[in-house]
Amino acid sequence: MSRLRQAGIHRGPAPVVHPETERFWRGLGQGRLQLQRCTTCGTVRFPLGPVCWKCGGFGHEWADVATTGTVSAAVTVRRATGDPVWADEVPLVSAQVDMDDGHRLPGRVLCDPDAPPPHGTPVEAAYLATDDGYGVLCFLLRAAERADPAHNDPAHDDPAHDDPAHDAADDDPVHDDPAHGDPEEGP
Ligand SMILES: [Zn+2]
Predict the structure, then answer these.
(1) Cβ proximity of 176 and 186 under 8 Å
(2) Does the pLDDT of residue 96 top 50, yes or no?
(3) Ion ligand 1 residue ranges (Cβ < 5 Å)
(4) Could you tell me the CA-to-CA distances from 96 to 41, 73, 109, 177 in Å, in that order?
(5) Is the confidence at residue 107, as pLDDT, over 60?
(6) Can you tell me the distance from the alpha carbon of 38 to that of 112, in angstroms, rounded to the nearest whole number?
(7) Do 159 and 5 contact (CB within 8 A), yes or no?
(8) How crowded is residue 68: how many other Cβ atoms within 10 Å of its Cβ?
(9) What confidence category does residue 144 fall into, taking pLDDT thresholds of 50, 70 and 90?
(10) Where are the domains of the chain?
(11) Residue 55 Cα, ligand 1 centroid: separation in angstroms?
């Protein structure tokens, strides 16, 4: 599975890390997108939790999952709610993304807030680094890559190298906590 690009530094409220979800947050901080896979029935599940929603099994292992997908729905958040720190971050684009292997994940899309991506827009997962080594999931638009098939994209193979999203994201790096999401969105 592809490693995620670091798209900036997370400046919002720190992720609420529970021992059962610590692997998810730590994986993101290392550029890995991992979800729980039930060791009884094999279902890869989200939201994270102690029990399989499909079979009721308690066991799980961590599985690398697809890092690309398409936007299911995206909205521009213009009024901060919850933690006051968001007041410095709006407007921002919050979305749910249909990942290529079938999961639907929430996260901020780092893009022009006046042009939230329409349904079906291709995106790739990325992360914003936190001070304690965790990462927060976010998404970057893939339109430029598709529009230019001759473009050789080294960042896909080597996320530590050549990160064009980094500069832009430095100005606007905070985003939703995917496991404890923004009250204005939700599946
Ligand atoms: Zn199961």
Answers:
(1) no
(2) yes
(3) 38, 40-41, 43, 52, 54-55, 57
(4) 26, 6, 9, 12
(5) yes
(6) 38
(7) yes
(8) 16
(9) low
(10) 5-146+162-170
(11) 4
